[in-house]
Amino acid sequence: MAGCRMKLELSLVALGKGRLGVLKGLGKTGQLSLEVPGCLLHTHLGTVPHLTQDTLSTLSTLPSVTQITLSNIAEHQEVLEEFKDGFRKFAGLHDTVLYCALHDPATPCPTGHTTNKTVSVWGSGGRIELTVAKFMALQKAVKPDWYQSMADGETWQINTSHKRVRKSVDRSLAHLDECLLVHQKSQELEGVEVFGVVEGGDILEERVRSAKETAKRPVSGFCLDGLQTGSMDQALRTQLISAVTKELPEDKPRLLQGVGRPDEVLASVEAGVDLFEGFFPFQVTERGCALIFNFNISSNPELAVLEPGEDQETAGDSQNNGDLNPDDQTQMTSFEINLKDKRYQGDFRPLVEGCGCYCCRNHQRAYLHHLLVTNELLAGVLLMIHNTAHYHAFFSALRDALAEDTLDLLKRRVLGQTERKD
Amino acid sequence: MAATRECGAAANTSENIMSLKKALSVASPLTLRIVAECPVTKARACDLILPHSAVSTPVFMPVGTQGTLKGITVDQLDALGCQICLGNTYHLGMRPGPDLIEKANGLHGFMNWKRNLLTDSGGFQMVSLVELSEVTEEGVKFKSPYDGKEILLTPEKSISIQNSLGSDIMMQLDDVVSSTVTGPRVEEAMHRSIRWLDRCISANKNPEKQNLFAIIQGGLNTELRKACLDEMTQRDVPGFAIGGLSGGEEKDDFWRMVTLSTDHLPREKPRYLMGVGYAVDLVVCVALGCDMFDCVFPTRTARFGSALVPWGSLQIKNKQYAKDFEPIDPDCQCPTCKRHSRAYLHALFKSDSAAMHHVTIHNIAYQLNLMRSVRQSIVEGCFPEFIRTFMKRMFPSRDQYPGWAVDALASVNITLE
C-alpha cells in the first residue's frame, strides 16, 4: 500500500460550484498542509524560475508543496544516486513538500516517442526514454513526498484517433499497476504518496473508463492529464472533468495538469478540481508581461461591474485583435499587460496598485519597461516575483469566494476584463 | 582641507563619520578620512564619505551598466555590503535617456538604490562599443547602435546627462585612446583630456551634490603621464582616476604607470583605478596606493559559470563538478555557499537562469570580502603579511607568481619568498 497519510478534509462541497478544504498530512512528518483549491509551486529543478532563496523569500504566502519534474531531473539520475540523500537535500530545499511530476507543464514536449512500455522526457541533452523500471529508479533517487505514476498523455493534439486515446488509457493503467508493484516493494518509498493519472483524451467514454479503473487502485489522489490549455476549449474540458470527478472518490484530491489561465482555473474548480500546477506565472513572465487582473471583490458589489475608466487596464488591447489564437500558450492573455509596450515608458506606477510584493513595493512600470527593452536579467526576477504573488493571491481570493459563496461575483470580476471588445 | 589620520585600530564609529560629514557637507560632497596607512607599501585604508553613505576603502565597485546589476536586486546588493556601484552614462543616456531618469528622481530613484552611484562619462563605451566616426576638439561623434543616428557627445553633454542621473561621483569625458596605441595620438588625447576636464568642471550644475573626478591619461608614456598629472592636479577636483590602462597592455607597463600616477596624486584625495578587477591586480594595486576599483569581470564571468575563489576560479559548468557536493567555497558565507553545492549549481545551469544569479552573488561577495580583508589588514598593520598569504593561496608555487606582480610588490618593499 502506498503512503496514505495524506487526507483531504473538505469543508464545503457544492455540485457544480467546487470544493473547499485542506489537504493535510503532507510531508515527511505529516505536519504540512495545503489549502484547496490551490496551486503548487512550479520549479525548474527545485528552483522557482529566476529566483534564488533571497528573492523567493520576499513572497510571504507560498504553497507548501513544491513541484519538480522528471523532464528536468531525469538527466541527473546518476548524480542523485551518488548523492544518496534525495532531491530535497540536493537542491537545498528545506521545509517543503516535494511533488514529482513527469512533464514540465510550461513546455509542451514533442510527440511520437511513446511506446507501450515507455514514455520520454526531454532534458537539456535531448530525449530520455523511461521504462517503469527507470521511472521508479528515479523516484527512489529523488525521494519525493509524493509523485504521479508514469502515464501516457499524448492525446492532446488535434485529431488524436479513438484508438490512440484508448491506448493511452490502457497504457497508463498498466504503468500505474507496475509502479505500485515496485512501490510496495521499495523500502525507500515507504510513506510516499502516489497519484494515479486519468487519461482519455477528448472521448467521454474513455475518460469515464479511465477514471473508474484508476479509482480502483490504492492511490492517494488523481492527476487529470491530456486536458492541457490548447488541447480543447473550456466547455469540453468542463464536461469531461465533471464526468471524471463523478467517478472519483470524494475524499481524494484531484490535480488538473497543464491548466493555469485564471478563467480556465475557475471553470475547472467548478467542475471539481482541487489542485493546479502553478506554471502560469512563469509563462507570463517569459513573455515580458505582468499579471494585473482584478480579483478583489471585497468592495461594494454594486460597483464591482462599473470600472473607473482611467485605471481600468484593458489588458490585451495593446495587441491587434486580428488573429489571436487562444490555443497558443505563449500568447499574451487578457489577464496581463505587456510591459515592453511604449505606453509604460513613463508610467511611474507600480505594476498593481496595492500589491504588496517586492516588485510593486520597490519598482515602477517604467523601470520594468526599461529592463525589458534593454534585455536585462532583472526583468525576469522582478516579474516572476510579482506574477507569483499575484497568482497565489488569486487562489486565496478564490478560496475566500467559495467560503463566502461569492464565486459568481469573483468570476464576473476576473472574467469581466475578457469581455471588452474595444 | 587636511584629512585626519589614525594609526592602528580604527576608531571610526558612524557617529564620528556623521559629525564629520555634517561639519564638512556644506563645503564638499566628498570627504576622505585616512584611517590607516601601511608603513611598508603605499596602501591606505580610508573612509570615503559621499552624499548617500560612507564607503570603506579600498573598495571594489560592481558594475550595474544599465541601471541594474545583472539579475541581482538592490536588496541583495545591499545585503552583500555593497556601498557603491556603477552605472553607465552611455547606455543610460541612450535608454531610457536622461529626461526620463530625471523624472524618476535620478538614477537612484529609477533603480531604487539608496547607497552611492558612480557614473562614467560614456567615453570608454564609445571607443569600445560603437562605430567611431570622429573625435574632434568639440567632442566625439558616433553612430547610435539603436537608430543609426549621428550623435555628438561633448564634455558638456556628458556632464549634463550625469547631472540628470544624479550620481554621487561623475567622471569627466576624456579622449580615450587604447593602451596599445602609440605615437602622437596619445599625446593629443592627453592634452585634449585636460581641456575637456576644464569644460566638464564648468558644465557641472551640481558641484555641491555631485563629485567630478578627473581621469589621468598619457598612455604608457612616462613623460606624457607626468605632464597630465602635473596639469590635472592643479584643478580643484575631489578625486582622480587613473585611466587609459587595463586595456590589453603588458602588465609590466601597466603597474609602472599605476605607481607613477599614485606617486604624483595628492594623498588626501581618493585614487580610482578604472577597469581593474582580477584579485591579484586588486591586491597589488592597493599596495601601489589605489583606493577604488571597478570591473565587469566578476559579474560577467559569473554568468558563464565561473566562480571566483581564493585559489583561482571554478568553472562550475565543467563535468568535474557534476558530483561535487561541496559549496563553491566552504569558507564563504554568501547566500549561495550557505545553501547550495557545486553539483546543484552545475545541474541548475542546464535548467534555469537562476544559476547565473547564484554565482553572481557569490562573485560579488568574493570581491567585497577580499577588499574588506585587505582593508582590515591595513588597519591592523599587517598588510604585507596579508599579501604573502594571499599569493600563497592563489598560486600553487612560488615560480607561478606572475613576474609583474613580484616586481610591482618589490617596488613597494614587499618581497615574496
Automatic annotation (TrEMBL), chain A:
It comes from the Eukaryota. Coiled coil: none annotated. It is found in: Cytoplasm; Mitochondrion outer membrane. Gene3D superfamilies: Queuine tRNA-ribosyltransferase-like. Its cofactor is Zn(2+). Residues 18-417 form the tRNA-guanine(15) transglycosylase-like domain. Keywords: Cytoplasm, Membrane, Metal-binding, Mitochondrion, Mitochondrion outer membrane, tRNA processing, Zinc. Pfam families: TGT (PF01702). InterPro entries: QTRTD1, Queuine_tRNA-ribosyltrfase, TGT-like_sf, tRNA_ribo_trans-like. Binds 1 zinc ion per subunit. Residues 315-330 have a biased composition (Polar residues). Its main location: cytoplasm. NCBIfam families: tgt_general. Belongs to the queuine tRNA-ribosyltransferase family. QTRT2 subfamily. Heterodimer of a catalytic subunit QTRT1 and an accessory subunit QTRT2. This is Queuine tRNA-ribosyltransferase accessory subunit 2. It comes from Pogonophryne albipinna.
UniProtKB/TrEMBL annotation, chain B:
This is Queuine tRNA-ribosyltransferase catalytic subunit 1. Pfam families: TGT. The gene is QTRT1. InterPro entries: TGT, TGT-like_sf, tRNA_ribo_trans-like. It comes from Pogonophryne albipinna. Belongs to the queuine tRNA-ribosyltransferase family. Heterodimer of a catalytic subunit QTRT1 and an accessory subunit QTRT2. HAMAP family: Q_tRNA_Tgt. GO terms for biological process: tRNA modification. Substrate binds at residues 120-124, 174, 217, 244. Keywords: Cytoplasm, Glycosyltransferase, Membrane, Metal-binding, Mitochondrion, Mitochondrion outer membrane, Transferase, tRNA processing, Zinc. It is found in: Cytoplasm; Mitochondrion outer membrane.
